[in-house]
């Protein structure tokens, strides 16, 4: 009797294949939008959730990738954590949680601003229902990564596209 075993390899660990990941062919990475896990998540909790999926909060390196990430997002969920956070004394000292180069930015006008105790970036996914809202879709803003700040309740994880190895047992 033969059976087939599927293994997924990501970041050197064997992981169970979870549905809903979307591959962006230009990067060979896969991405997943999370909401209601179980409710809002501060920045560090969202990053830890992604790490448990052999991933990190999304790093974005081009306009095309920024647009791809935006397409994953659900209408009505406007503020989404991305994996960019302040690492030094200045708000200009930003770094991706996955360690990749900070080689692309899509900041809104006037951003990044040093207005919080723990600066982390979020992306505005879709227009806010408030017509007087000044935030612009697809642009990045600085939010407070501190656990007490509850304005961002969704996030996107990114990981290397997992390979499927088929073995006969």
3D architecture notes:
It contains 2 helices and 11 strands, in the order ββββαβαββββββ. The protein has helices at residues 43-51, 63-72, and strands spanning 4-10, 13-15, 22-24, 29-35, 56-57, 79-86, 94-96, 119-124, 140-144, 154-160, 163-168. The strands form 2 sheets. Strands 3, 4, 5, 6, 7, 8, 9 and 10 form an 8-stranded mixed beta sheet that branches. A 3-stranded antiparallel beta sheet has the order 2-1-11, with no helix packed on it. The longest helix is centred in the middle third of the chain and has 10 residues, at 63-72. The N and C termini lie close together (8 Å).
What do we call the CATH homologous superfamily? Mannose-Binding Protein A, subunit A
Please mark out the parts with pLDDT under 50 across 5 or more consecutive residues, or reply none: 1-16, 165-169
Proportion of strand residues = 25-35%
Number of domains: 1
**CATH-defined fold name:** Mannose-Binding Protein A, Chain A
Please compute the radius of gyration using only Cα atoms. 17 Å
Element-level helix/strand string: EEEEHEHEEEEEE
Q: Main beta sheet: strand number and arrangement?
A: 8 strands, mixed
Helix content: 10-25%
Number of helices: 2
CATH level 1 class label: Alpha Beta
Q: Give the N-terminus to C-terminus distance in angstroms.
A: 8 Å
What value does the average pLDDT take?
A: 77
DSSP strand tally? 11
CATH architecture: Roll
Class based on secondary structure composition and strand pairing: mainly beta
Shape: globular
Organism: Ancylostoma ceylanicum
Protein name: C-type lectin domain-containing protein
Pfam families: Lectin_C
Domain C-type lectin: 31-140
């Amino acid at each position: 009797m033969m059976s087939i075993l599927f293994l997924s390899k990501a970041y050197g660990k064997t992981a169970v294949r979870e549905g809903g990941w979307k591959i962006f062919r230009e990067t060979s990475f896969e991405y997943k939008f999370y909401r209601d896990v179980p409710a809002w998540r501060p920045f560090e909790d969202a990053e830890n959730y992604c790490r448990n999926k052999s991933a990190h909060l999304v790093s974005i390196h081009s306009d095309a990738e920024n647009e791809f990430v935006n397409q994953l997002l659900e209408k009505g969920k406007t503020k989404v954590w991305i994996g960019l956070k302040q690492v030094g004394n200045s708000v200009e000292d930003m770094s991706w949680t996955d360690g990749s180069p900070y080689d692309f930015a899509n900041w809104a006008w006037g951003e990044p601003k040093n207005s919080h105790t723990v600066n982390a970036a979020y992306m505005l996914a879709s227009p806010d229902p408030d017509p007087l809202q000044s935030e612009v879709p697809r642009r990045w803003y600085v939010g407070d990564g501190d656990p007490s700040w509850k304005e961002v309740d969704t996030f996107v994880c990114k990981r290397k596209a997992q390979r499927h190895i088929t073995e006969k047992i």
